[in-house]
Amino acid sequence: xxxxxxxxxxxxxxxxxxxxxxxxxxxxxxxxxxxxxxxxxxxxxxxxxxxxxxxxxxxxxxxxxxxxxxxxxxxxxxxxxxxxxxxxxxxxxxxxxxxxxxxxxxxxxxxxxxxxxxxxxxxxxxxxxxxxxxxxxxxxxxxxxxxxxxxxxxxxxxxxxxxxxxxxxxxxxxxxxxxxxxxxxxxxxxxxxxxxxxxxxxxxxxxxxxxxxxxxxxxxxxxxxxxxxxxxxxxxxxxxxxxxxxxxxxxxxxxxx
Length: 257
Fold this sequence. Notes:
The chain is mainly β. It has one helix and 19 strands. The strands form six sheets. It has a five-stranded antiparallel beta sheet with strand order 5-4-3-6-9, covered by helices on one side. Strands 10, 13, 17 and 18 form a four-stranded mixed beta sheet that branches.
């Protein structure tokens, strides 16, 4: 998957009418993998609709939020690991415990995790839990991620790497975010965008020899005429993943007065 979140629970003091302490949640985002070694396989996930809620969160101020909510999902699309038609997903009921509060009748992309030992929220081993520090989100906001996962599920290779202004030791100052990277073969063009770290990724690329092409963002200060040589090609044969950093242009030199 393109991004992974790590749950971190931090105790924050919340001052109110009675004072006291309540848990809060912070999620650390792991950067998108820029090579094949760090690329993770598709984890258990599905697209589903909430058809039943048991013990929902009580949104009243100072209400008892102990225990877990149970959400019954109708599985509309199995992305990985879910062949059943319905499944129960659990989550906490508080506002700051990293829990996910699903809505009845809404569609979600869900990436649950299975409880091993007793969870901090009291979940028994074997239960499937969901939280905000994963890729779980409304289906409508997961369009790009689902497109990538579906392509990987269909087969073909993953091509991943950095778009930079020059070769040599990696320097974040030379990475190019928000650029369009293309793979071209015959009359077919595959397209993707680099993220804020300058990482691009293609999924489900069929076999063949492709030529790279790059469209730089309008506000990126490079000299388009000073191309850093011709862009490379890549041959997709029988590997599941190919890592390829590409270099497209020199930075505009600073003029001295």
